[in-house]
Amino acid sequence: MCSGEDPAIHRHRIGTPPGPLLAELPAAESRRPTLAWTDAGAADEIGWHSAIGYSSLSVRTFIGLGGNLGEPAVVFRTAVAELRGVGQVVKVSSLYDSAPRDAFDQPHFLNAALELETDLSPVDLLLELKRLELALGRDPHGRRWGPRVLDLDILSFDGLCVTDPEHDLIVPHPRFHERRFALEPVAELDPLLLPWRNCSDLRVDVSVADLLPTVANQEVMRVGGPDWADPVSPSGLS
Ligand code: ADP
Ligand code: MG
């Protein structure tokens, strides 16, 4: 480490090229669900919106990435490569180091966020994220809020609110508003984003930038730029 640099920058070995993780996964395109998520019946059933004429449109979602085991930056890059098979990765945020919040006896986390355009339903997107978490090494029996290789959260889904107990899904993510490590990377991508825009919710007009001052006391530090997701050349140099 160079003298004068913050140790957080080196904690996560940012910039290491991806290992063989990607090669072990089936091609993302072959897993793509064929049903459009805005099937009118399903949408009406849980009351997202009137689905008429909407089914082929992609929606704008924001996904949070986190991890504190192994080499999260490497795993993040592999996750992005995979997510390109389930939608369009429009933008990725910088990398952030964050102190553990809900369980303290564990290493700091690396966090980021990305904007994904997808035509998957919220539930199908959740299933895809869970599948990716497991494929990239998350322990399915790991303790809640404990150390993990990869956490992928649907932070915001087209300003919609979804509560689906059957699939254990709440959108926007139920703790998004209180986590600086989730809000700050999303604010970098779109500070004016209104995550509750299409909801009957008191926060309908609240942007991610509005929420940042409420979490300013949490320990989060930017440790790398948004180039972490770039493809790596055979020489291992970005
Ligand atoms: P957290 O994401 O709060 O750090 P976990 O990753 O341990 O905590 O929580 C995992 C559970 O949260 C999963 O069973 C998943 O079904 C559920 N969950 C509910 N809403 C969401 C969401 N919006 N995004 C991701 N997971 C969610
Ligand atoms: Mg999660």
N- and C-termini, Cα separation: 20 Å
Bound molecules: adenosine-5'-diphosphate, magnesium ion
The low-confidence runs, each spanning 5 or more residues with pLDDT under 50, are: 27-55
The CATH architecture comes to: 2-Layer Sandwich
Q: Give the rounded overall mean pLDDT.
A: 84
According to CATH, what is the class? Alpha Beta
The main β sheet shows up as:
6 strands, antiparallel
Query: Based on CA inertia axes, which overall geometry fits?
Result: globular
Fraction of residues in helix: 10-25%
Strand content: 15-25%
Report the radius of gyration as a whole number of Å. Answer: 18 Å
SS elements, strand count: 8
In N-to-C order, the SSE pattern is HHEHEEEHEEEHHE
Q: Which structural class do you get from the secondary structure elements?
A: alpha+beta
Give the name of the CATH superfamily: 7,8-Dihydro-6-hydroxymethylpterin-pyrophosphokinase HPPK
* Number of domains as seen in the coordinates: 1
Descriptive notes:
The protein is an alpha+beta fold. The chain has one domain: 7,8-Dihydro-6-hydroxymethylpterin-pyrophosphokinase HPPK (Alpha-Beta Plaits). The chain has 6 helices and 8 strands. The protein has helices at 7-11, 40-46, 72-83, 122-135, 180-189, 208-211, and strands at 59-67, 88-92, 95-98, 109-118, 151-157, 162-164, 169-171, 220-224. Strands 1, 2, 3, 4, 5 and 8 form a 6-stranded antiparallel β-sheet that branches. The longest helix has 14 residues, at 122-135. The site of adenosine-5'-diphosphate (ADP) has 12 residues, from strand 5 and strand 7.
